[in-house]
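Figure 3 (text version): structure tokens given as input.
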């Protein structure tokens, strides 16, 4: 799919990742196209599933969700997975859920207000799923980089352009 995206599309996507409300006239100036052409390109990117939606970036600290934790979750019985994933899908404190390799089954990215809230979350949500045998929790002290922006250039090309 990356091969279907040209440099103009990449620039449009980069600008929209920065600010999803960028006016098409501004996008057009940045890429040298008329507003109607930008509109058509964005429409096609949506239709092809490259753009999945436009979202507001909400400040975790403004909502006092100051505790960021990563929770590894493990079990032995494959039947546990279905109930676990159902619980994960309905829990707003879980920002991300990743099926991982190694000794763990899943990795969760979680935001809560306090360590007490995290403890309640672990006991009442994660460990309450029948079959969950173990968890390991890492608490982030700070996050020098946290982004939802996707790389629009393959890492090898980016390294080449950076002179590496």
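Below: residues designed for each position.
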């Amino acid at each position: 799919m990356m091969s279907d995206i040209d440099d103009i599309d990449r620039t449009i996507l980069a600008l929209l990742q920065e600010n999803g409300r960028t006016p098409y006239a501004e996008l057009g100036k940045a890429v040298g196209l008329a507003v109607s052409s930008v509109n058509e390109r964005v429409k096609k990117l949506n239709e092809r599933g490259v753009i999945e939606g436009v979202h507001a970036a909400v400040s975790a600290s403004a909502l006092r969700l100051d505790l960021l934790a990563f929770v590894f979750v493990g079990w032995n019985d494959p039947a546990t997975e279905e109930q676990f994933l159902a619980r994960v899908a309905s829990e707003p404190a879980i920002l991300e859920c990743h099926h991982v390799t190694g000794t763990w089954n899943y990795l969760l990215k979680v935001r809560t207000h306090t360590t007490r809230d995290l403890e309640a979350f672990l006991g009442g949500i994660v460990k309450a799923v029948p079959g969950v045998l173990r968890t390991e929790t890492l608490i982030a002290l700070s996050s020098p980089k946290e982004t939802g922006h996707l790389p629009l250039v393959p890492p090898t090309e980016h390294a080449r352009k950076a002179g590496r």
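The domain at 67-139 is CATH 3.30.70.920 (Alpha-Beta Plaits).
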